[in-house]
Amino acid sequence: MIRTALATLILAVSATASLAHSKPEDTTPVNDTTVEVVDVISIRFNDPMRVTAITMTGPNGAVDVDRETGLEPVTEFLAAPAAAIPAGVYAVEWRGLSADGHPMQGTFGFTVSE
Questions:
Q1: What span, in angstroms and rounded, lies between the C-alpha atoms of 2 and 7?
Q2: Residues in domain CopC (predicted)?
Q3: Can you give the pLDDT at residue 3?
Q4: Nearest residue to 88 via CA among 39, 36, 12, 24
């Protein structure tokens, strides 16, 4: 009886782990790096993610970002600054819905050199 309960618990934990949330794997620019220019902002996920919002801020405040990826679930989200951005420290914040329907959010940052 205890073995059956333990086996059921192990099976339940394994099933839950297989339904894990989508996670970001890589970003462009890479988090906490210094780059000379930013032509594209990308986030690569391990499972499809529907990115519902993305914002970028820098030394002069909010930066306009043009989405290249729509609202469909993707494993790679693409956007670009609407115009060339000056040197400084930048932060990108995103929100979305993972493949299992859970709301997710994250941030990454980079520096544009002079």
A1: 9
A2: 21-112
A3: 57
A4: 36
- Look up the pTM and report it: 0.80
CB 92 within 8 A of CB 108: yes
DSSP state of 32: T
- The tokens describing 105, both together, are 């959010």
Query: Which one, of 32, 86, 37, lies nearest residue 60 by Cα?
Result: 86
pLDDT of residue 18: 46
- Domain definitions of the chain by residue range: 21-112
Q: What is the DSSP letter of 82?
A: S
Taking domain 21-112, whether its CATH number is 2.60.40.1220 is answered by: yes
